[in-house]
Amino acid sequence: MAGNERMNYELKKDKTDSRMSTKDFLIGTLIGAAVGSLTALLLAPKSGKELRGDLNNQAYLLREKTDHIRESVSIKGNELTSTVKDKTTAISKKVSEQSVDLVNKVKGLTTDAETKPVTNPVDELFEQTTHSESDIQKKLEETKRAFDETESKFNSK
C-alpha cells in the first residue's frame, strides 16, 4: 500500500511540476516580450514622433492592401456564385426537358400499344420493352454527356 501511495504522490508531483514549468515559461515569455519592446523603443534611432508616424503609415498601407484583397475576393466570389447558378440552372433545365421527353415517349408507346391490334401479346410486350429500354438508355447517355460537358466547362474555368 505504501508503494502505491508513493507512486501516486510522485505522479501528482510530476504533473504539478510540468504545469509549473509551462506556467513559468509563459510568464517568462510575456516579461521578455515586454522588456524587449521597451528596450527597442528606447534604443530606436528615430524619435517617438517619427516612429509613431512610420507605424501609422505602415498600418495605413496594410489596411489598404487588406481592403484591396477583400474587394478582389468578393468580386471573384460573386463571379463564381453566378457561374455556379447558371450552370445549375442549365443542368436542371436540360434534365427536366429530357425527363419530359422520356415521359412523353413512354406515354406514346403505351398509347400506340393500346391502339394497335395485338397478334401475340408476348412478342408485342417484348418489342415495347426493348424499344423503351433502348430509348431510356439513349436518354440517360445524353443526360450523362450533358452533365460531363457542363462539368468539364466548369472545371476548365
Automatic annotation (TrEMBL):
The keyword Ribosomal protein is annotated on this UniProt entry: no
TM stretches of this protein: 25-44
Name of a matching Pfam family: YtxH
Protein source organism: Niallia oryzisoli
UniProtKB keywords: Membrane, Transmembrane, Transmembrane helix
Name assigned to this protein: YtxH domain-containing protein
Transmembrane helix as UniProt keyword: yes
